[in-house]
Amino acid sequence: MCVCVESSYIMHIGLILPPFHGHLNPGVTLGGKLKARGHQVTLIAPLIGKQYAQRENINFYEMDCGQDDKTSQAETELMATQSGLQAFKTSLRSISVYGLILLRDLGRVIDEMNVNALLIDEVLYWGGATVAEIKNIPFGTMANAMSIMHCVDGPPFLTTWQYNGSMFHRLRD
């Protein structure tokens, strides 16, 4: 369920997206829509994200990934040539590296940019949400496909299990 609230409160929203085309495209499109509603929006990402931010005319903050930035760019290009399990492994490796960078640097970036809310791609949830909690700022998550988030309120998404609220099924889930 989506609840839309009209408000005159203007926020500076930081978009936290992985450096993958399939996440940057829809993520910055959403950022453009938020900007159209009057919010200030900044994509916080490695250099690959700059062209996407420019396309939607939103702000861009280059997350300095050092040597990891070259690795991230190379892995993004590699994934474009892969499929199946190999692409999945490459994306997990890249997400892990970027998640650690977020944990290391995102708090400083939030302070520098005066960001007062985050919109986090769910594949970077743990890094982004952890920093948002520490900084005590609101955050939301977004999914660009079927959600992969899992909570104790239901069965894992990769199963065909039906929901059941019994203690046995809650432990199973």
What are the defining features of this structure?
single chain; 14% strand; 173 residues; 6 helices; alpha/beta; globular; 5-stranded parallel sheet
Walk me through the structure.
There is one protein chain. The chain is of the alpha/beta class and 173 residues long. Helix content is 47%, strand content 14%. It is built from six helices and five strands; from the N terminus they run βαβαβααβαβα. The chain has helices spanning 21-36, 50-55, 67-79, 84-113, 125-135, 167-172, and strands at residues 12-16, 40-45, 59-62, 117-121, 139-142. It has a five-stranded parallel β-sheet with strand order 3-2-1-4-5, sandwiched between helices. β4 (117-121), α5 and β5 form a beta-alpha-beta unit. The chain is globular. The model has no long low-confidence stretch (mean pLDDT 83).
- What share of the residues does DSSP label as strand, in percent? 5-15%
Number of helices: 6
Largest sheet descriptor: 5 strands, parallel
Q: Give the overall shape, derived from the CA principal axes.
A: globular
Q: What is the C-alpha radius of gyration, as a whole number of Å?
A: 17 Å
On the 0 to 100 scale, the average pLDDT is 83
Point out poorly predicted stretches.
none
Strand order of the largest sheet: 3-2-1-4-5
Number of separate strands = 5
The ordered H/E elements are EHEHEHHEHEH
Q: What proportion of the residues is helical, as a percent range?
A: 40-55%
Distance between the termini: 23 Å
Query: Which class best fits the helix and strand makeup?
Result: alpha/beta
